[in-house]
Amino acid sequence: MADGTAKYAPPENSAVDPVDFETAGAEAKPELRLWLRLLTCTTMIEAEIRQRLRAEFGVTLPRFDLLAQLDKAPDGMTMSALSQHLMVTNGNVTGLVERLVAEDLVTRTPDPQDRRSQIVALTRIGRRSFEAMAAAHEGWVSDLFDGLDPAETAQLMRLLTVTKRSVGATIGRTATKKARNVPR
Amino acid sequence: MADGTAKYAPPENSAVDPVDFETAGAEAKPELRLWLRLLTCTTMIEAEIRQRLRAEFGVTLPRFDLLAQLDKAPDGMTMSALSQHLMVTNGNVTGLVERLVAEDLVTRTPDPQDRRSQIVALTRIGRRSFEAMAAAHEGWVSDLFDGLDPAETAQLMRLLTVTKRSVGATIGRTATKKARNVPR
DNA sequence: CGTAATCATTTTAACTCTAAAGCATCTCGA
DNA sequence: TCGAGATGCTTTAGAGTTAAAATGATTACG
Prior knowledge:
The structure is a homodimer. Chain A is mostly helical.
């Protein structure tokens, strides 16, 4: 950020205090204000984590996310599985994996069982790198949430579980997928 | 999405249920699980809104967000103000505004007071288009959150306010900005 | 006044991401 | 068995995005 504009993390002398989407006044529906607040929280946290990953480990957030998925799959995962768990497109994963292979952090090997598939797995270096990042990451996240006491943390978790279920139900209900294999 | 992979909104026959980042087991710190849950909720909602904006209005989410900011500023905003409120870089706004100008949804005029600045404002078409989108958008958001009763909505809002404050404080505390005008 | 610092914006390079189309492989039922 | 549809992945074109540097304009101040 060579220019003067604070992008993430507005400096303490910022005129606009916590700058964010939430210009929606009190006249807006509560659900809309809730969504904007949710989005603001996520964006702020994401920006902070992105910046720290870059500054301290020279890694981008998408790469970190991908490594995190692989770390939990000792035998590796297919491209599709990665795509689903990361909630991004297949094409996106293709490029991401390519770059990580070039950095020797992951391997990509054909699946002998299914010649369409590629199995992606962490290299030894990849795993070691990720472990260092993950430890720091967990600390950052703790710091960011340290204004919540344990009861609030638990309560927020509960409400987000309800939210996730609500969103999932609404999406499922309105989904207009072609193949509706499941009989209604 | 011509391929068979559900990107957003996994179809009801998905094998992995609500596919998301949250492979983190119970062994992880509560704050980390909370953050992953928060991220999942936001990503799911964002994906759904993005898809509907595209399907029903042929507009992308970043463009919608930019229009939303302008809608609340009858006299327009500078590029910097947009950048701050949208929490994206200046360069990003430059390109976004360029495309919206090409679509006749916004205007960009030099600020007579300050020749460095550009004032961006909605055109009449832009405002009318946005109003239609905003109405639909508000309805979508309501639907997505309709699994929460009013008390839960209020409670979640309260906890996110605490979260936002916590994140803001942590970021402010650890910010290593060059110009620290405010005396410690 | 003059100049250094600041500020608003654009530019650049590299990366991330989506949506859609295309190719190869697999599955399964007639 | 064989062909249609489903599946796994890549490719393509375009948009969005960041970080960093560059440009031009303003402000502060000595």
